[in-house]
Amino acid sequence: MPDPELADLDSVLAELTLEEKASLTLGSAFWHTAPVERVGIEAIMVSDGPHGLRAQLEEADHLGLSSSVPATCFPTASALGSSWNPNLFNEVGQALAREARACGVSVVLGPGINMKRSPLCGRNFEYVAEDPWLAGELATPMVQGLQSLGIGTSLKHYAANNQESDRLRVSAEVDERTLREIYLPAFERVVTQAQPWTVMCAYNKVNGTYASEHHWLLTEVLRDEWGFEGLVMSDWGAVHDRVAALAAGLDLEMPPNHAISRDAVVDAIREGRLDEAALDTAVRRVLRLVGQARPARAEGGEFDVEEHHRLAHRAALESAVLLKNEGSVLPLAPASGSTVAVIGEFARTPRFQGAGSSQVNPTRVDVLLDELTTRLGSDVTVRFAPGFALESVDTDSGLQEEAVAAARDADHVLVCLGLPGSAESEGFDRTSMDLPANQLALLDALAAVHDRLIVVLANGSAVTLSTWEHRAAAVLECWLSGQAAGGAAADLLLGRANPSGKLAESLPLRLADCAASLNFPGDSGVVRYGEGLFIGYRNYDKAELEVSHPFGFGLSYTTFALADLDVRVGGTVAGGDLAVSVAVSVTNTGSVAGAEVVQVYVRDVETTVARPVRELKAFTKVWLEPGETQRATVSLDERSFAFWSIVHHRWVVEAGEFELGVGTSSRDLPLAETVTLDAPSIAAPVGRDSTLHEWLADEQGRRLLLELDAPLLADDHLVSVIGTMPMTTLAAFGMGLDYPTLDRLTSQLSPN
Ligand code: BGC
């Protein structure tokens, strides 16, 4: 990829006036960077979005209001995330790049990798997972796919943008360890592995400072620690103080606030409030981005609409999660002359994407009802009844009665339920996880006349299943699976394809089980992430809560067996080369081809800090013919065992036992092996304010105390009672030592 040398950038920079430089750090229009024709700097175009291009050539908005150039609508992130397939993310990334090239778009504004802190976040459909490792592992190949074809990405929304309520102002109050272990690692992974051309800052504040002005986030962590080389752009309208943002490391303001920003920067430099070097740095990054975009802009390209639709279809097949299949009611095999009742407006009016800035104008849309009818042919009667009105929660008794009549004597009954567009979108959060009341009432009524209902779901984020799942024999969760969702669902229902999706987010029994609900979406301008590390399965596992379906779960039309776990530890933590390889044999024990996702979770058995019960640290998806066995191998490194120490402000591994659980969901880990890792001590050095326990746990401290031969140390019970007291307090009480003795002991400690 031609990447203009810094020397070239510097010579361009030297030709620019202060005003021109300032204007380069703002866009020129809604979707364009600023040109400086005088010195041959062209404008480049950026466009949403994460699962399909939303290139607006005329009227611009960032809310999905005005139309855009027709583009392939791939499954949204919550759907594609359920594929657990990095290669698929790469293929979709490449397809997005081809479409971007065809439209003259240089940077695609995605992928979105914010954590699903609560099922209620209105934009969960745009986010990959509730787990940082999974989100990072899947988004990395998407960025690589796009950028391999000369199109940039904008990793978003950095950081802690986990709700829509008050999203432009709210302060996400997140402690250091939670940020490092939950909200930052997916960004870190993508940045370090794929170097996205750009990162988009979030709208919200993080611990009181707007993300757009957050020097620690934008410069210290992103660049100094992770080595990010690209450009940071603002989310649309996220800049409040252009000068503060520039100083913090925000290179490009989008869209431009022409009335204020350029002059504010120029004045600040002239008045000595902003170092011109900060502006020059941002300008260099803009120039570099324009340079990176040049080859693809010059070459252009086109894309094959049909081929991309086929990819969207394949992606939708892999995104669906089979949640229940009692008595193998699926796949459907309707006999000649039989009747299939297809109930639910969604079968005719598909919901396949979410609303807002990611809304794509699809090249075509597959409709489940039509796709099923075509595939079933004329020997099978398909009877459709809408059952409910989409944009209402009230039961329409006429529609419901018609649906019940259609289902009553049908051989097979499909019930297409889901969330209407008005229920979830960018811009607002949901207030409940429940399906609309009229749909649930319909399901009740259908269950009274038919005992093998097959529910097909279309929704962007988790919905409650526990109140109605017992009424269904089978449940196929299709998420918002893009323009080919209808055909893919038909193939899955009829067994022309085998479901292989796995939940990338837990399905709790009820919203109240989600610990984040205690503080969601916050109030008075603040949302406190009081649950800390415990979102998603980390919460349900720690609190020992039943769930409807756990993270990582998904059924298949075949069965798999895992055997012969082999774990090998190589290298050491101290040597910085720890590598733990995990191998397991996976066999397809059923009669159709299918795919299984082998998942590896790590549990810290001996820990001095609060840790999740288990955390996903590796996975691999394996495709197997009936009877076939393959050896799946993954590898873990030091980070897989580490936690973020708020004492040392870095990742640390605590020596001791770790259990590796290997299986096919976070709650189905039939194989396990414990490894014992040696690691340098992570205890903080002891001093005057350390407790008696801490002194006794420290090698030097213990030796010095024992040399004192104080009688109190001989009394174990007394030591456990006073052990939590700082040494200074013990000295004040004259308990076994006095201040001069403490000073002497402290002076004898050598720094470790
Ligand atoms: C969204 C971004 C999007 C931008 C441009 C904002 O409202 O938060 O995700 O990329 O608009 O449409």
Q: Which short descriptors sum up this protein?
A:
752 residues, six-stranded mixed beta sheet, 28 strands, 31% helix, binds beta-D-glucopyranose
Layout of strands and helices, then pairs:
Blueprint: H1 6-15, H2 18-24, E1 27-29, E2 32-33, E3 45-47, H3 77-81, H4 86-103, E4 105-108, H5 132-148, E5 152-158, E6 171-173, H6 176-183, H7 185-194, E7 198-201, E8 205-206, E9 209-210, H8 215-225, E10 231-233, H9 242-248, H10 261-270, H11 276-299, H12 305-319, E11 321-325, E12 339-343, H13 368-376, E13 381-385, H14 397-408, E14 412-418, H15 437-447, E15 453-458, E16 474-477, H16 485-493, E17 507-508, E18 526-528, H17 537-542, E19 547-549, E20 560-570, E21 579-588, E22 594-604, E23 615-624, E24 629-637, H18 638-641, E25 643-645, E26 650-652, E27 656-663, E28 671-677, H19 692-697, H20 699-708, H21 716-722, H22 727-733, H23 739-748
Parallel strand pairs: 3-4, 4-5, 5-7, 6-8, 6-18, 7-10, 12-13, 12-14, 14-15, 15-16
Antiparallel strand pairs: 1-2, 8-9, 11-16, 17-19, 20-21, 21-24, 22-23, 22-27, 25-26, 27-28
This protein binds beta-D-glucopyranose (BGC).
Distance between the termini: 47 Å
Question: Roughly how much helix do the residues carry, as a percent range?
Answer: 25-40%
How many strands, which pairing sense, and closed or not: the largest β-sheet? 6 strands, mixed
**Spatial ordering of strands, largest sheet:** 11-16-15-14-12-13
Tell me about this structure:
The chain has 752 residues and is of the alpha/beta class. The chain has 23 helices and 28 strands. Strands 11-16-15-14-12-13 form a six-stranded mixed β-sheet, sandwiched between helices. Strand 25 (643-645) and strand 26 form a beta hairpin. The two termini are 47 Å apart. The chain binds beta-D-glucopyranose.
